[in-house]
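agent> fetching stored inputs for the zinc ion docking request
agent> found them:
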Amino acid sequence: MVKFDVFPEILPHVKYIWSIFLRHVETSDLLNEIDLTIGHGERSDIKISGDFHKCIEGRKYDHQSMFRDVPLFLTESGKPDYLGTAFYLINSLQEYDSDLEDKFGRFPYEASLQSRFECSTENLVVDYFRALFEQTSQLKSGLKWKDLPSGIFISHDIDLIRGALYEEGVWAIKKGRFDILLSLIWMEFISDPYWLNIDQIMNINDEHDVKSTFFWLVRNGKARLNGQEISNANYHFKSPSIQNTIQKVSHRGFFNGLHKSISTDSIQDEISQFQDAPEINRNHYLLMQLPNHYHQIEESGIKLDCTLGFAPYHGFRNSYGLPFQPFNMFEKRPYRFVEVPLHLMDATFRGYHFLEAEQAERIMIEFIESNQTNCLISVLWHNNFFSNYKYAPWLNVYKRVLMTCREMGLKSWNPRDIIENYLTNGGN
Ligand SMILES: [Zn+2]
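agent> prediction call returned; pasting tokens
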């Protein structure tokens, strides 16, 4: 019997994180025979710290005042509170009352505890769960720790369809490849631009048994954000070529999702533009504020959101590698959707760190190699990086990443698999 001896106001939080912990343990009937207390007392087998209680009850979430030397809540006698800390990390509570913003209005990576403790590439929650298991004799003697096999989740944000003639054309001129320039011009002329390459992307993915997800922007043109101009799509969502492509994606067993634009439209407004309402979303620019974003996602009926990643840095924005249902702090229950954290994005390496493709490849492979368990590695590759010309080295990186994943035996997950496995009670 597991007994929860905690203040009633945080009982739902503790039960929630305990249920996530149990995913990592080979549970059996033995769990019912084990006597275990999870509580605030120093004699509890698993300890919940006063600091965690204060954090939740006082709604004070700033990591600077929460953690001193390590990102870990400690009890008054200095014992680790792994469950409380896991709850705090998984739900990105550090972002809840932060008014720090980068130039796009996002929670800045530099302000995060992942940056402060240099732990962005550590699946810290799993490390804490494992330590909890190892240090709790009742668990260790009767049950077995379970490392879940890692998988991959591949997706493509479709921001740019037009623009190849300029970018690839300049490249072709520099290389003296006027044959390529002419073919780019021809493609524009027949309204089949080079970056409308979704078929090619699906062909490559099919070679690796990957049914990926394409995120579409329904709004185009410029939007104003924090006093600056930002581009939404440079294509028309309603145009026949885009609509036909979206149909083709689903006919071939791939997936379409909403790429929520920078606008005052609600997610529902944007979903209503689709012929078949998508259940999947990622926000353009990964722009969101927590917890508002989670409220909006739930209200819209979206079942899978893929926005939780740091654009300027790869790794774990919430220090946890697997999909999860975030916890609604106001209603004290899990939200009715699954969040799939984003780990690796082409633009992080090229746009933020100005790396060469080969350098990015090394970092990505190293990340994948060190996360062969307990992680659904989420990779975002934009369609314009599937180019045989200017971005050809980046296409090669993508292919080698897929090959590496395959050699390691990582299964490719699609949104349907994820919802089935990670949304409890069908989200009701
Ligand atoms: Zn985008």
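agent> quick read of the result: Residues 157, 159, 259, 284-285 surround zinc ion (CB under 6 Å).
agent> awaiting further instructions
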